[in-house]
Amino acid sequence: YIMTDTAAVVSALQSGQLDIASINADDASVLEGQFDIYNSPQNMVQIFALNNEVEPFNKLEVRQAINYCIDKDQIINSVFGGYATKLYTNFSPVMATYYNDSLEGSYDTDVEKAKELMEQAGYADGFTFSVKVPANYQAHIDTAQIIAQQLQQINITMNIETVEWATWLEDVYTNANYEGTIIGLTGKLDPDAVLGRFETNYARNFYNFSNEEYDQLIKSSVTELDEQTRIDNYKRCQEILTEQAVGVYICDPNLVVAS
Fold first, then answer.
1. Please, which residues have CB within 8 angstroms of residue 82's CB and are 6 or more apart in sequence?
2. What is the pLDDT of residues 38-91, one digit of tens each?
3. 209 vs 40, 49, 52, 73, 181, CA distance in Å?
4. Residues 6+ apart with CB under 8 A from 14
5. pLDDT digits (tens, 9 = 90+) for 132-150
6. Is 178 in a helix, a strand, or coil?
7. Any idea of the CA torsion for 102, 188, 209, 137, to the nearest 10 degrees?
8. Which of 75, 92, 160, 228 has the greatest number of beta carbons closer than 10 A?
9. Whole-number Å distance between alpha carbons of 130 and 118
10. CA distances from 234 to 1, 85, 177, 222, 249 (A)
11. Is residue 228 a contact partner of residue 191, using CB atoms and an 8 Å limit?
């Protein structure tokens, strides 16, 4: 059955119409005890992306300050009911071979550090910007609302603009006409398909990120025959994305199923 109403899915499970269904975290808590609840990482990255060419996000200290200000645990617990894996770069640990676990703990929440970085960047008094969020993804909207509250601690006002999916694809994904956005980057099975999104000349590099070392690593890894060298290259790529605070890498939301 194709069902878009989550309440109808729960009702259909409870009535016996459905034997198994994908559900959200809130419904999982309702169905626990009645059904077996399974959950697994999706190899996805929920990212609070920042347009690196737009002021003030063209300043590294501002991007780092935002990373230090965000409490990812609050998002994971409030939006995903705990069914998510915290991330530190644009890579999920479910891709274990290439995952750089040395990055774990990067930008642990530190509001005072965030304030220091904002002052260094010349934005102690903060600023105002807008985040474009697809209207058809409630989890991203809920995440945006939490982030907006958190950013107030460092005098940043984030206005939330919900847009239709087609508008998001046109404005953000295609034309990079935005300041910030919250979206899920679907996972792929090859690390090039995951990390290649941040290469300078990638057609949908809507973050407007550009780094010479990163580009070279991506380019050479495509034809690299030695697997360990390839692994090392992609781990370094993850380090660069984290060091440069391209965006805030929040979590890999789990797929939750009731059976």
1. 25, 76
2. 999 999 999 999 999 999 999 999 999 999 999 999 999 999 999 999 999 999
3. 30, 11, 6, 26, 15
4. 31, 34
5. 999 999 999 999 999 999 9
6. coil
7. -100
8. 75
9. 18
10. 40, 20, 29, 10, 17
11. no
